[in-house]
Design brief:
CATH architecture of the largest domain: 3-Layer(aba) Sandwich
Helix content: 25-40%
Strand content: 15-25%
Number of domains: 4
Number of helices: 24
Radius of gyration: 31 Å
Largest sheet: 6 strands, parallel
Oligomer: single chain
Number of strands: 26
CATH class of the largest domain: Alpha Beta
Structural class: alpha/beta
Amino acid sequence: QKSAIAAQKQNRVEIATFDSFFTTNVLRPHGHHSMGCKTAPFLVHGSEPFMGGFTINLGKFPQSAHTLSATFDRGNWEFFSSFKNSKTKIDTKLATALVSRLGKVGAYTHEFGRYWSYKVLTEQAHILRALARRYPQIVIDEAQDIGPSHGALLDILAAAGSTITLVGDVNQGIFEFNGADGRFLAKYHLQKDTDAQELTINFRSVPDILNVANSLAGRDDKPDRVSPSLLNGAFFTTFRQDKRDDLLDLFGAMLKAAGVSPKNSVVLCRGNEWVNHWRGAEPDQGRGSAKYFAQAAVLRDRVENYDAAFTMLIRAVLGLLEKPPADLAGQLRKPGADQEARAMRRVLWKFLRDETTGLPAASLPASTQWQPLLLARTKELLEQLTTISGISAAGNMGNRLSKAGLSASPLAEQQSTTRGTAAHFRVDTVHGVKGESIDAVMYVASKEHARELVAGPKTELGRIGYVALTRARNLFLLAIPEGTEKDFAAQLEAHGVKRYPFMDHTGAVLNESCKNTGTLGTAGQSEVETREESVEAGYHLPAVCAAHSSQEPTEFNSPPIRADVTSEMRTARTAEERPVKTWTPPETGEWYPSFSELSAREIENVDYQISVVNRDSMVAVIAPHGGHIEPGTSELAQAIAGEDLSMYIFSGLRPGRHHRELHITSTNFDEKRCLDLLSHTHTRRLEFTDVRIATTQKQSSSEGGTLR
């Protein structure tokens, strides 16, 4: 009985997107009254053949209805035309006449769907009352994406009695072109009887990535996660557009060092033009329906996006039918369509999936092999569809599927899988991964994108970069154009983004496996070419790492990582050979007198590592002697801290290179992050003095000093 009651309650909770909620509950069941149509309203995308009759003349050429946008401003609807990334306000009477004419056949676009839903709820008061009673509580996630037209619908629902709860981050509003810039969310709590609560625990990203996000957004969110032992955090590197595979190789090497599968990573770009470049996409071929068939083949074979390929296939087939029903495209996309549409859908999916009897492979030469096969097989496909639906094929099939616009080359070359090419990685726009959590993210940015990112989420481009960063769970890599590092390196490092590949103070490149072992590698002439040869040849120089003789082999041994090297970077390759310029160890003392002295001569994440977890606990565990300094201290501190205490660990990754020991006495440990953590741990301070701790590692023991 209890399970039956729980199931009944669960069925009363509806989970949907904003638009689908209003489409399902308002527009489709009740929209025909306001739209004046005789059928259930249906969504159109602009590619339907009948849409050619619904245009508006705005000057040089007519624009299709699907290019218009609608927004709500101070109680009135306004309409805009979009062309080449520019929006122009158009006469309201002209626009509403076109929208109404389209509505009379039952069609609406995404933009007009919100317009008609608003009309239904304001013209049919009983529908609004029923909706508010059915949904007394409405919770909206990603609320920074609410624009004026969304807000208008929420306002009338709230006025009718629904309680509206918004959850979102104003810094992630990246749909400004659609009026959704986060302002609705930012101002919503200013209304009467509205409470504002902050979410301050980040459950997604490792602390180093969260620190960068906090720095950019001016926040102080706390991490729920602790840093893993493998490579993690936020990094930047440089790239050249004509050396795409070099950057992808480097990203692949970082994934291996981080223990991340390429399947759990993504390469992000600002727009579709960049996405196509980094996917290695070829230019579109064909004209008319042949072009859409070609795009479907590429989406299937190259991108492996069957859903998008099916949508493109529908578009191609509709152009070959004689007067298809206006809502046929929507029926074919909808799994719950009538029996006839389901039968057509099955035939189309079979045609798409089978390259031997259906849509030919994109790897075939387009004009000589792919097009003849397409023509013959499409005729058979249309015969099957006519038998099912009675819709006849249009005439002039040979002209509609001609070789015009097709070249002798394949639609899509087969990708190499021998290197870190785009075949291994998902490549998408930042908008395409909105709301996702991804293990590793590489954001390929232009100079303008990088400039806006480091300035913080104040503009849409800045927020786009912020969204790219905050998708990442373990690893984030920002790729900026070669030559721009002088403009952004200092700002990025100030935000906590580290340069990659790692380099020491002489400019020598350090392999990630060197970082893990804490040793600099040595490479003989037989192992790698000289720096002079690599620079003259225009190649990236591989950094080769050899494990320190006194240590066990590392668990992760990443492949060579390429990095740009100039002739000024020619230096000795081993720790012993590397010159120590102005530093001379003091005559007395076995460790550095202060952290400032240490950090000036040792390299973070190469010679030492710092891990901070601030859980706002009244107790903090501080371990300033770990790793090579006093083996076992780091592990002991983690065991003590567990999940309830704040923790600070300073770990030496190897013995000091410029001093007898990479060590600071705990009574003079002045590292800023340690002091910051202690300043936050102010409720109670517990001090243990003269506690002797014995640790054992590999059958040898060492005693620690005073623990405070």
